[in-house]
Design a protein that fits this description.
409 residues, 42% strand, mainly beta, 4 helices, ten-stranded mixed β-sheet, Jelly Rolls
């Protein structure tokens, strides 16, 4: 087990905030080099949550976030972002800073311009919209075996990438997840904020293990049955490559990508932080042979791509463009997902499911008939089963070499 905190060097972005219709997410990039940043979602009143890299067990010694404060311009009051990020109730729920009336609120940066920026998430929600929802907000640094309220939307924030885990249970349930705040969880938002993950209701809830390479996720359970959820900034890895179970449904994104369209202007936007990777590789692996279906929503120009490499059958596939695509891979045990230098708002959301495999391998990249999707080439081949579960180290090294070579071309 290694920390998900992988610090990237020499990353700079002109803007990092992500705007939704009724909320905004801010990162330290938004505050770096600026003395004051106005929080526009507070003009009619708002609630504010914050997440930092300082957990609630730390004492009051010097903290790198102490020089970032929320300033109430109406009353000339300052509120500590450090204190706000550590403010929990006895059920591990984050507590907000609330402004119930129209207010002029900003974040003031008292740091020197030469000082390093530190990963942070400030989540600001219009208070009128917030009142329409029953919700709880948690932090990845303080969510150990929490029994979430199945009647409410549960939003988990984090200043670093994290995993969200719910064990299987014998009770009926299902779940929907989006990479946004609680106000965008309902299906009514449609394609404005796509589902990152969904499990239809089953008599015996199978649980989930999700990796979130971004600042936030919201989940809504289908049934009123209690669910135990835990967040962690740790993951299984090998040679620095995160490993996930191909046999259970999941998703992969580029760093900070959520797939949500910008309000009123179209396009998409990515949250940027020096902990969110522009280039990375993920290994999806299984002890059994599986048929795997991928649903990919990319937002990339032709100079950038995602490589989906069927390692078992030595068959890499390239995904690019800004059109939704589907990819089916049969009879595989190991698939590598790799991307490189996804700058600006370029990125992708990739969802996957699997079933027990047959003996004939068919790799099929499909497009939809509507105008928002692009069909691509279909290929077929005979199964070759190179490698095994016990030889995973060799397979992984092969995968990394193939993907690195493909991405450089």
């Amino acid at each position: 087990m290694k920390s998900l905190i992988i610090i990237c060097i020499a990353i700079s972005f002109c803007a990092a905030s992500v705007d939704f219709m009724f909320s905004t997410l801010y990162d330290s990039v938004d505050f770096a080099g600026k003395k004051e940043v106005h929080l526009k979602k507070c003009d009619n009143g708002c609630i504010i949550f914050a997440s930092t890299m300082s957990d609630s067990s730390q004492k009051s010694e010097a903290d790198p976030y102490d020089n970032l404060v929320i300033h109430d311009n109406n009353n000339n009051l300052d509120y500590s972002i450090t204190s706000l990020s550590r403010n929990y109730d006895d059920k591990s729920r984050k507590q907000s800073l609330s402004f119930t009336k129209p207010s002029s609120i900003s974040v003031r940066n008292l740091n020197e311009k030469s000082e390093n920026t530190w990963p942070i998430v400030v989540y600001v929600v219009d208070i009128t919209k917030a009142k329409e929802f029953a919700f709880d907000v948690y932090d990845s640094l303080n969510m150990k075996g929490v029994s979430i309220n199945p009647n409410d939307v549960s939003t988990i924030m984090s200043a670093s990438p994290f995993s969200l885990i719910a064990p299987k249970s014998g009770v009926k349930n299902g779940v929907t997840a989006r990479l946004t705040g609680f106000e965008n969880i309902k299906d009514a938002v449609g394609d404005a904020c796509p589902q990152a993950f969904r499990l239809d209701t089953e008599e015996h809830f199978p649980g989930f293990n999700l990796h979130i390479a971004g600042p936030i996720i919201s989940i809504l359970m289908n049934e009123r049955n209690s669910v135990i959820v835990e967040a962690s900034t740790q993951f299984n890895d090998e040679s620095g490559v995160p490993i996930f179970d191909l046999a259970v449904p999941g998703f992969v994104t580029s760093g900070g990508y959520n797939g949500c369209r910008k309000p009123n202007s179209g396009g998409v936007q990515s949250f940027r932080s020096n902990l969110l990777l522009k280039s990375a590789s993920y290994l999806l692996t299984s002890k059994d042979y599986l048929n795997v279906s991928f649903d990919i929503t990319p937002n990339m120009d032709t100079n950038h791509k995602v490589i989906i490499n069927d390692i078992t059958n030595a068959d890499p596939q390239t995904i690019t463009s800004d059109r939704r695509q589907w990819l089916d891979i049969a009879n595989t045990q190991n698939v590598d997902i790799a991307f490189s230098d996804l700058s600006g708002d370029q990125g992708f959301l990739l969802r996957y499911t699997s079933t027990a495999a047959q003996k004939t391998t068919t790799t099929d990249v499909k497009g939809n008939s509507d105008s928002s999707t692009t069909p691509t080439t279909k290929t077929a081949q005979t199964t070759t089963t190179s490698g095994s579960w016990e030889a995973k180290n060799l397979i992984l090294l092969w995968s990394v070499v193939i993907c690195a070579t493909s991405l450089q071309q």
